[in-house]
Amino acid sequence: MKEIQSDVCWLEGRAVNLYLGMDPDGLTLIDTGMPGSEGMVLTAVSELGCQPADLKRIIITHGDIDHAGSAAAIQAATGAAVLASAETAVYLQNGRSPEHMPWLIQVLANTFFKFKTVPAAALQTFQAGEILPVLGGLEVIATPGHTLDHHSLYRPSTGLLFTGDALSTRDGRLQSSPKRITADKKAARQSALRLLEMTPTVFACGHGTPLADPEGEYRTRLLTELGQN
Ligand SMILES: [Zn+2]
């Protein structure tokens, strides 16, 4: 667990990132990792000097198994509310991920990628544009493309952007969702541009090391790649 802002920690899951935000009323987890990640999350909660019941909210950026796979187990262990878009909530209730993979991987995923479902009573849906009462105000941004249910979260007070998989920092390079795992490439490009327009200074991505970009050089480079500079 590493601190990326004074009240935000980065948890490295199995090939995916999770984030814990600290508010006076308790903790918020952003994404949950693959099935079986609950132990790691509960350890992190304890290392922060908190109890499982101090985890108040679990936010899910999209229904992929590496982001949503431990939502049910962490919810059951903590009693936290699970916050997601209405589109993502359907996947959470079915224990299935949205389709956006190359066909053979998709066939395998449809067969093997199932996760424990989140009870409806624990689910709270949010909408794009809503400001969640987390980290002094966390704006929900619709960022379809990688998957159609995808949402990112922006904290304007500190320039911190939780991108989910709309952007990543794989290989130390800020980039949009790789084409081969993108459901709608045109929407993914527009979503990436929407996020960059907000001039975030810290990119907390679902994959790759969180990236501080105070001078905006990574941001400018990606804008150029997307044909906007
Ligand atoms: Zn994903």
Describe this structure in words.
This protein has 229 residues and is of the alpha/beta class. It has one domain: Metallo-beta-lactamase, Chain A. 28% of the residues lie in helices and 27% in strands. The chain has seven helices and 15 strands. A seven-stranded mixed β-sheet has the order 1-2-3-4-5-6-7. A six-stranded mixed β-sheet has the order 8-9-10-11-14-15, with no helix packed on it. Strands 12-13 form a two-stranded antiparallel sheet. 45% of the residues are buried. The protein binds zinc ion. Zinc ion is lined by residues 62, 64, 146, 165. Zinc ion binds at residues 62, 64, 146, 165.
Task: Describe the structure in brief.
With 229 residues, this protein is α/β, with parallel strands linked by helices.
In CATH's first tier, which class applies?
Answer: Alpha Beta
- Chemical compounds bound to the protein: zinc ion
At CATH level 2, the architecture is: 4-Layer Sandwich
Helix and strand pattern: EEEEHEHHEHHEEEEEEEHEEH
Low-confidence stretches: none
> Approximately what portion of the residues adopt beta-strand conformation?
25-35%
Query: How would you write the strand order of the largest sheet?
Result: 1-2-3-4-5-6-7
Separate helix tally: 7
CATH topology term: Metallo-beta-lactamase, Chain A
Average pLDDT taken over every residue: 96
| SS-derived structural category | alpha/beta
Relevant CATH superfamily: Ribonuclease Z/Hydroxyacylglutathione hydrolase-like
**Gyration radius from CA atoms, angstroms:** 16 Å
Give the fraction of residues assigned to helices.
Answer: 25-40%
* DSSP strand tally: 15
Taken together, the total number of domains comes to 1
End-to-end CA span: 36 Å
Major sheet: 7 strands, mixed
> Quick one: overall form?
globular
